[in-house]
Specification:
Alpha-Beta Plaits, alpha+beta, 18 strands, 36% helix, 6-stranded mixed sheet, 4-stranded antiparallel sheet, Aminopeptidase
């Protein structure tokens, strides 16, 4: 383990250079040309690290990338994404810059540093002649917008894997993520009856008033102490102040920590019916990402990681996250999954996004050591 850490320290500048190069190639999820430019650079760096690389063509979004370091045994799967939430041109307002021990810039923390850590971990294993099982990496291009084109690929590889290591950012202080909430979205559409709000209000049925009543019902489904959240994030409806609205719409974000809680929320949404006479209610949607629960398999994988960290003189923590990742999909299949193995820093999706550069060598050695132990 110490040899892996020494290698990571000796090659720290190269790891930082990989982050900077990938971050300089802006790659918003919805801009295929930009994402594919970043993907070509990533593929080249993976080949230089000794991988057999396959670009998986995708017409709707950017092309996904699969890299393999071979062998006949079941592989360890390293997982992450190189799409970001930042549009092309963000670097003009948020330039990449080193600020003491921090690297600032859009996409650095979430999660191009995680990709660089994964590549550096394989270079450390190979550079120190440390034996390890086969490794597969999947880097996707649509995680930030729901993983619609990549979920099948992720689940296919996860079924073959002995374990999944997700290189999303760490929790504050470097703790790993052994639980994540499931994430869902519902659309609620109300149809009412239009009428003049002054002359004939009794002849109308307000879709907006019905929607407000429904949102009050949904508020009672929220149970924050149990980790269940329900948030009406978008509301639309009506045409003019003097018209009883005949249509209204809401989009509701839901989060739940367990499959049981997620199923309960879905059942509650399906059971909703109109409250006010003359209105009609339509509900669509559901949970897109199942919860990543702290199962015995997940806990066992964390214990291995904690043992690797202890051998390097670090006490490793664990925790849960309210947001989801592609690790939610792999954990739901029963494949042992450990998340948050990427960079230490802060500011995902925020203007102050940064990576803690001093923490990078340990994170590289941790991932490399965990692969070797597996």
């Amino acid at each position: 383990m110490q040899q892996l850490l020494d290698h990571a320290r000796q090659h720290g500048d190269a790891t930082v250079a990989t982050i900077e190069r990938l971050a300089a190639l802006e790659s918003p999820s919805t801009d295929k040309a930009a994402v594919d430019r970043c993907g070509r650079e990533l593929a080249q760096r993976l080949r230089e690290a000794g991988a057999v690389v396959e670009t998986i063509s995708n017409t709707a979004r950017g092309d996904h990338i699969r890299a393999r370091w071979g062998g006949d045994d079941r592989p360890v799967l390293l997982l992450g994404h190189f799409d970001t939430v930042w549009p092309v041109g963000t670097l003009e307002k948020m330039p990449l810059q080193r600020d003491g021990g921090r690297l600032r810039g859009p996409g650095t923390f979430d999660m191009k540093a995680g990709i660089a850590i994964g590549i550096a971990a394989m270079q450390a294993l190979r550079g120190t002649s440390t034996s390890h099982p086969p490794v597969t990496m999947i880097w996707t291009t649509d995680e930030e917008i729901g993983s619609g084109t990549s979920r099948g690929l992720i689940e296919e590889e996860a079924r073959r894997a002995r374990a999944v290591l997700v290189l999303e950012p760490a929790l504050p202080g470097g703790s790993l993520k052994t639980a994540r909430k499931g994430c869902g979205e519902f659309e609620m559409i109300v149809d009412g009856i239009a009428a003049h709000a002054g002359l004939d209000p009794g002849k109308g049925a307000s879709a907006i008033h019905e929607l407000a009543a429904q949102i009050a019902v949904l508020e009672r489904l929220q149970d924050l102490p149990r980790g269940i959240s329900v948030n009406a994030g978008i509301i639309e409806g009506g045409s003019r102040p003097n018209v009883v609205a005949d249509r209204a719409r809401a989009v509701i974000d839901v989060r739940a920590p367990t499959r049981e809680a997620a199923a309960g929320l879905e059942q509650a949404f399906r059971a909703l019916g109109p409250i006010r006479p003359g209105t009609r209610l339509t509900v669509r949607g559901g949970f897109e990402r199942p919860p990543l629960e702290r199962t015995p398999a997940v806990a066992g994988l964390f214990r291995i990681a904690a043992d690797v960290a202890a051998s390097l003189g670090v006490e490793l923590g664990e925790g849960s996250a309210g947001g989801g990742s592609d690790g939610n999909f792999t954990a739901a299949l029963g494949t042992p999954t450990l998340d948050g193995l990427g960079a230490v820093g802060d500011g995902a999706h925020a203007a102050h996004e940064f990576v803690d550069l001093d923490a990078l060598p340990f994170r590289v050695a941790l991932v490399a050591g965990l692969i070797a132990r597996l």
